[in-house]
Prior knowledge:
There is one protein chain. By secondary structure, this protein is mainly alpha-helical. It is 63% helix and 2% strand. A hairpin with a 2-residue loop joins strand 1 and strand 2. Helix 1 runs antiparallel to helix 13 and helix 5 runs antiparallel to helix 7. The model is unreliable at 1-27 (pLDDT under 50).
Amino acid sequence: xxxxxxxxxxxxxxxxxxxxxxxxxxxxxxxxxxxxxxxxxxxxxxxxxxxxxxxxxxxxxxxxxxxxxxxxxxxxxxxxxxxxxxxxxxxxxxxxxxxxxxxxxxxxxxxxxxxxxxxxxxxxxxxxxxxxxxxxxxxxxxxxxxxxxxxxxxxxxxxxxxxxxxxxxxxxxxxxxxxxxxxxxxxxxxxxxxxxxxxxxxxxxxxxxxxxxxxxxxxxxxxxxxxxxxxxxxxxxxxxxxxxxxxxxxxxxxxxxxxxxxxxxxxxxxxxxxxxxxxxxxxxxxxxxxxxxxxxxxxxxxxxxxxxxxxxxxxxxxxxxxxxxxxxxxxxxxxxxxxxxxxxxxxxxxxxxxxxxxxxxxxxxxxxxxxxxxxxxxxxxxxxxxxx
Length: 388
């Protein structure tokens, strides 16, 4: 979505926000499309649609629900950090493309700000549709916008500096979570209700509807780490074996660091603890490595086309289903023998009433994902890619 309009292009450079290039030299990058990166983004979007639209009530598998406090990490908990990793991975690709087009430095800086602002604005629009009144607050897209802003602005630093800054951000954030004094609680208190971000949200950020803004620190660190792996992935001087070795070892190191850190600061998606960032990000790297091995390295890419389709219009896949639910499916009503109910609830009740809660719920979820998959396929087949 360039300036929030439709574009018809040969292929999207990226379906997640990424900055334009600077005038400084950049490493030579691979000229061919990296199907593994598109497929990883598509897998993340597909999991997002599944988690957001599961309709099994108490029969929902635990892995498709977010883990409770000190409950570990589920598949549902991996969606958001994997998308942030995708954002970081895509930044070098967009930067190299813009560099090739000779985009000036001032435009590079402006595009970073504009793209972040658009993400925040779209997120506020969704929140406003949910509340049915104008709202400025922190949500998924708003957090992505701030994290992208951090990662994109620092992406022109050397890989070594980016790694150091990323881990420094996680370390400082983790130390604050663990040791920042919370008034009214014992020194070093850390629980679901008594923690540093909760105190800051209540005392300071809440009055400005910015609860959760502190999460931009660890999520920005993850995006920044993603740019490092993206640079390495796109460097055509690296062989497939070198990339897979680097990504798999890096992923294992991150997972191990996350597991160790979890012993003192447990995984928490709500607080974006460093242990959670490292563990989920490391798993994402391993998944990307497998996808790279089975597509780009093996030169067998056709099987990944469905995933690529889901990832080709990520902003559409996230925002449009939510907006349609809020403005149409939950608002339009259907007459029933007992009165009226929303179209979405009516459809779900019919399916569960005729097929049972489990079968009916799955048919609803799969059908809903399939419908949006067809929409994304139509856009993909016409080479229409909506980007921020």
